[in-house]
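Consider one such protein record:
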Amino acid sequence: MIIKGTAFVYGANIDTDQIYPGRYLDLTDPDRVAQHVMEGADPDFVREVRPGDMIVAGANFGCGSSREHAAVTLKASGIAVVLAESFARIFYRNAINLGLPLLVCPGIAKGVKRGDLLRVEMDTGRVINRTTGAALMAEPLSPYVLAILENGGIIPMIRREQGRRE
């Protein structure tokens, strides 16, 4: 799977309340939820992001609460992949289980600027900055995680697997 998009770059320790502020937790409609994506870190993000765009961040992206709302919001906004130096563990699992691709990519925060065009090869972990020509290697995902993502999340994957057994 190859993903191409524009990068939105953030620093380290972007927490779940910056991704999706807690005051909106009562919203459940994905379109309404997406209207508040990254509001705590970048009020302009929601107006500028387009389906297929990417987030690039420093270490510990998604720290904070264990709520799934942050991952749901990013996916609903059309973010195709999040590339970061590292992720908070619970956010990482929530995102993968919901079908939002994440890649740990050492050096990504220094190698990409906002607006750069990126190409991400999900199966190999290769990240190419099409604006500068630089290439980086992210930690490749396991075949199981790739299967979850290709199915749109763990629940759709399990439903498909159970349908095959019946």
